[in-house]
């Protein structure tokens, strides 16, 4: 099947559509042939409307309705561009993550999750069937609904001690474990992983830049301002004292917790300079990730996400985790910008083949479940016969 994986993340700066051909090439093996990526920036007015709906803001049902429609139309436009471009006018399914506007977590328990971007608009724009709402079923089964990227990481990571880090709005980590969940050798079972949201990355950094520039920018390009600043150790200690960090995995978080008000409430009087604040927030993320790498005995770390372009953050991470080999995800065959969009293409492919795709060891769900809801395209849905054997290996190719 040719799948188009569609994603907009917690940084909500663009929507990415990855086109890939997937097939069950052998028992327990999937071949993924990537055909290219289309990335489209959010229209400024749509992004502003989205930001107004995120915590700690409160919005009306009418606002959410309009936002759901506008996001669906935008995603439909991006999917149509991918269909006409790297898909060469032919695809079987579109898989849309949608835009998270709320992830309802209370302590260690997730109760619900809401992604907007109505799938009907995507189906109408492309004529193709759509898999959407991929997180809710895992939450209904007692899971966190995140991090679903562990499903891809389990197939990508070369062996025990290897980890995958995504630096988006939130930093999430996946670590390959030595054995399967049932204690059998990893080669005889689906690879076992530990995965969870470590803490904030761009979520707080971008907000601090927006304050410093009166909204003119949300990115500290390359981490240049953070590099000029000095870490405020008192503020860093205060930030590290968040109860979330003491929760054991599985756990997930988002901008519902790490929102602009969260940071404002923790600033001392007088507050640090903007450069010192950015240096401190950079150190916070580097410290959290380095501590997690030590706790889980990570030897090799493959990084993806927008945080890769923050040279200061990467330098501080390498300094704090000096015994870890840190490279980008290209080293395991996946370009960093494509990774999450390819993930959702894979999850949708598994769903339409009847294969549960939630990584229960990562999300904490009671059992494996089929993810997502199906929206027909212009023709009746035709699903293949279910595949019985879960994937244990992913072969990556480039078109």
Automatic annotation (TrEMBL):
Key words of the record: ATP-binding, Carbohydrate metabolism, Kinase, Nucleotide-binding, Transferase
GO biological process: 1,6-anhydro-N-acetyl-beta-muramic acid catabolic process; amino sugar metabolic process; peptidoglycan turnover
EC number: 2.7.1.170
InterPro entries reported in the protein's UniProt record: Anhydro_N_Ac-Mur_kinase, ATPase_NBD
Pathway the protein takes part in: Cell wall biogenesis; peptidoglycan recycling; Amino-sugar metabolism; 1,6-anhydro-N-acetylmuramate degradation
Gene3D superfamilies referenced in this protein's UniProt entry, alphabetically: 3.30.420.40
Protein name: Anhydro-N-acetylmuramic acid kinase
Organism whose genome encodes this protein: Streptomyces alkaliterrae
Gene that encodes the chain: anmK
């Amino acid at each position: 099947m040719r799948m188009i994986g569609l994603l907009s993340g917690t940084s909500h700066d663009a929507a990415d559509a990855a086109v890939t051909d997937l097939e069950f090439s052998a028992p327990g093996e999937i071949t993924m042939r990537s055909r290219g990526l289309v990335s489209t920036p959010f229209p400024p007015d749509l992004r502003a409307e989205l930001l107004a709906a995120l915590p700690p803001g409160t919005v009306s049902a009418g606002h959410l309705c309009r936002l759901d429609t506008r996001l669906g139309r935008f995603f439909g436009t991006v999917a149509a561009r991918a269909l006409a471009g790297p898909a060469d006018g032919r695809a079987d399914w579109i898989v849309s993550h949608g835009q998270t506007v709320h992830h309802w977590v209370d302590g260690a328990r997730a109760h619900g999750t809401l992604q907007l971007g109505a799938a009907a608009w995507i189906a109408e724009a492309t004529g193709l069937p759509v898999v959407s709402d991929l997180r809710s079923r895992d939450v209904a089964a007692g899971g966190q609904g995140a991090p679903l990227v562990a499903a891809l990481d389990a197939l990508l990571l070369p062996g025990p001690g290897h980890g995958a880090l995504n630096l988006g709005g939130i930093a999430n980590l996946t670590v390959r474990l030595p054995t399967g969940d049932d204690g059998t050798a990893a080669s005889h079972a689906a690879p076992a992983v530990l995965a969870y949201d470590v803490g904030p990355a761009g979520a707080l950094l971008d907000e601090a830049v927006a304050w410093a520039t009166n909204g003119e920018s949300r990115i500290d390009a390359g981490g240049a301002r953070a590099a000029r600043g000095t870490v405020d150790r008192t503020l860093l200690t205060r930030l590290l004292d968040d109860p979330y960090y003491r929760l054991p995995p599985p756990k997930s978080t988002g901008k519902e917790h790490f929102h602009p008000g969260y940071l404002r409430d923790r600033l001392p009087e007088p507050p640090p300079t903007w450069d010192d604040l950015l240096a401190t927030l950079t150190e916070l993320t580097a410290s959290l990730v380095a501590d997690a790498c030590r706790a889980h005995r990570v030897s090799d770390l493959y990084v993806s996400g927008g945080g890769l372009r923050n040279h200061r953050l990467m330098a501080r991470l390498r300094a704090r985790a000096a015994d870890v080999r840190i490279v980008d995800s290209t080293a395991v065959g996946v370009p960093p910008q494509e990774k999450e969009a390819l993930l959702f293409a894979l999850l949708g492919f598994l769903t339409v083949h009847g294969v549960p795709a939630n990584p229960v060891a990562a999300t904490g769900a009671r059992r494996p479940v089929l993810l997502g809801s199906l929206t027909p395209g212009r023709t009746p849905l035709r699903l293949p016969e279910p595949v019985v054997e879960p994937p244990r290996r992913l072969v990556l190719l480039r078109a």
